[in-house]
Amino acid sequence: MNTKPRVLKAFEALDQEIQEQIKLAYPEGFEDHLIKFVNKDGMYQSGLPFETEEKYYLVKMTRAEAAELIAEDDDYDDDGNLRDDVKEEYEDRHDDSEDDL
């Protein structure tokens, strides 16, 4: 059973470091990785799962929001893939945390 604290937030509300780690985990975009869940009010929502050593994140977003995030983010190319130079920069920056995952 997962005993890590769970964090439910919008992508924009996450720390820059977590956003960068999510981009590394999903270099081809977010849309195809969304899951549906029932929130505390019993309503269906969709979100992007992401886990660190300390926490389990569920990043609230719809398919349309996921597509828009990638389309408007300069870190991704026109095909919706994380640019190689950005990927290398983020990998170098977060190398220690990746070794622990």
Structure, described:
The chain is α+β, with helices and mostly antiparallel strands. Helices cover 36% and strands 22% of the residues. It has a 4-stranded mixed β-sheet with strand order 1-4-3-2, with no helix packed on it. β3 and β4 form a beta hairpin. The radius of gyration is 14 Å and the shape is globular. The two termini are 17 Å apart.
Structure in a nutshell:
This protein is an alpha+beta fold.
Q: Would you report the number of β strands?
A: 4
Would you list the SSEs in sequence order as H and E?
A: EHEEEHHH
Main sheet attributes: strand count, strand direction, barrel closure: 4 strands, mixed
Indicate the percent of residues in helices: 25-40%
Q: What is the strand content?
A: 15-25%
Strand order of the largest sheet: 1-4-3-2
The overall average pLDDT, rounded, is 91
Shape by Cα distribution: globular
Helix and strand content put the structural class at alpha+beta
Work out the radius of gyration: 14 Å
Query: Total number of helical segments?
Result: 4
Which key phrases capture this entry?
globular, disordered C terminus, 101 residues, four-stranded mixed β-sheet, 4 strands, alpha+beta
How does the SSE layout of this entry go?
Blueprint: E1 6-10, H1 16-25, E2 35-38, E3 44-51, E4 56-60, H2 63-72, H3 84-93, H4 95-100
Parallel strand pairs: 1-4
Antiparallel strand pairs: 2-3, 3-4
